[in-house]
Design the sequence.
């Protein structure tokens, strides 16, 4: 099992499995609404998935404009749960097909907020692509249009996703299992 900086990380989805799903998803996206396509990656967790998916979109003949939005949830675990914009996109979305890319769809609060925001701003279609779907955690009535993998209810890291700012650089998605035994 891979040991990264003293932690055992159990691979859940390998780099090869992810690459294959990215190619599948790109083909599906090409069959959906892509008029004047704007891709918006939700930072930070989606940055590697978005970068790979964009190149897969190129391979199926799409040439979208690319934007980034940073969103943050507040009040998790309290009554007043919400999402706020930390850094907004610069482009106008009016009458455009928009593809939102995120790492994980969990409660659905983040992407529901983003989707509604873009429709309010006049987007023609807003579709959602997520690498992982943690369906058991859903709180909102929201489904992604394109899903890489159904994800079991573990906290996962790698391929852009972090725990306490660590492990974003891993080329695979894994579960942190704990400390590796020391050999001293
Ligand atoms: P939600 O759908 O609004 O609950 O938000 C899901 C967001 O929480 C994702 O975009 C991630 O940023 C974060 N998140 C949820 N589960 C995990 C995980 O297992 N590892 C890392 N980040 C996670
Ligand atoms: Mg996120």
Sequence:
């Amino acid at each position: 099992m891979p040991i990264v900086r003293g932690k055992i990380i159990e691979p859940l989805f390998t780099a090869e499995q992810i690459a294959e799903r990215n190619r599948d998803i790109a083909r599906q996206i090409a069959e959906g609404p892509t008029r004047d396509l704007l891709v918006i990656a939700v930072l930070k967790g989606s940055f590697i998935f978005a970068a790979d998916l964009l190149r897969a979109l190129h391979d199926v003949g799409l040439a979208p404009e690319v934007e980034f939005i940073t969103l943050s949830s507040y009040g998790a675990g309290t009554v007043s749960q919400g999402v706020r914009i930390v850094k907004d996109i610069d482009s106008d979305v009016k009458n455009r097909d928009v593809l939102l890319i995120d790492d994980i769809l969990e409660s659905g609060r983040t992407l529901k907020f983003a989707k509604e925001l873009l429709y309010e701003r006049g987007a023609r279609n807003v579709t959602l692509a997520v690498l992982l779907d943690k369906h058991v955690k859903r709180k909102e009535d929201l489904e992604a249009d394109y899903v890489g993998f159904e994800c079991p209810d573990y906290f996962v890291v790698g391929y852009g996703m972090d725990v306490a700012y660590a492990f974003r650089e891993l080329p695979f998605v894994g579960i942190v299992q704990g400390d590796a035994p020391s050999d001293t």
User: Anything to note?
Assistant: The CA atoms of residues 17 and 172 lie 9 Å apart.
